[in-house]
């Protein structure tokens, strides 16, 4: 997995610090302190938020790298009986080690 600080830094460069902070449910100040290596709070919680919201995962079904939040959406949605392709993906997700539990 990519270094989560680099993932955070890249997101801030692309989207802006305020937008990333909102997406992660942290303040702009917290993001700034984390990036500067001066955050006094629980960095592990920020790391988890970055990996969950901004991280990527290799999808064994599609063979592509997808956003972790896309993976979570696919794996926690109700069974898509209307589309055979989506159904096959959903069924594969049931046994995937990357599967989100929806928590």
TrEMBL record:
This is XRE family transcriptional regulator. It comes from Chromobacterium fluminis.
């Amino acid at each position: 997995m990519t270094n989560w600080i680099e993932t955070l830094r890249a997101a801030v460069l692309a989207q802006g610090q305020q937008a990333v902070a909102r997406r992660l449910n942290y303040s702009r100040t917290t993001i700034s302190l984390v990036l500067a290596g001066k955050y006094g709070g629980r960095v592990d919680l920020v790391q988890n938020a970055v990996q969950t919201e901004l991280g990527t995962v290799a999808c064994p079904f599609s063979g592509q790298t997808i956003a972790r939040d896309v993976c979570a959406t696919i794996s926690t949605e109700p069974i898509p009986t209307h589309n055979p392709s989506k159904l096959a993906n959903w069924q594969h997700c049931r046994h995937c080690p990357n599967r989100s539990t929806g928590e």
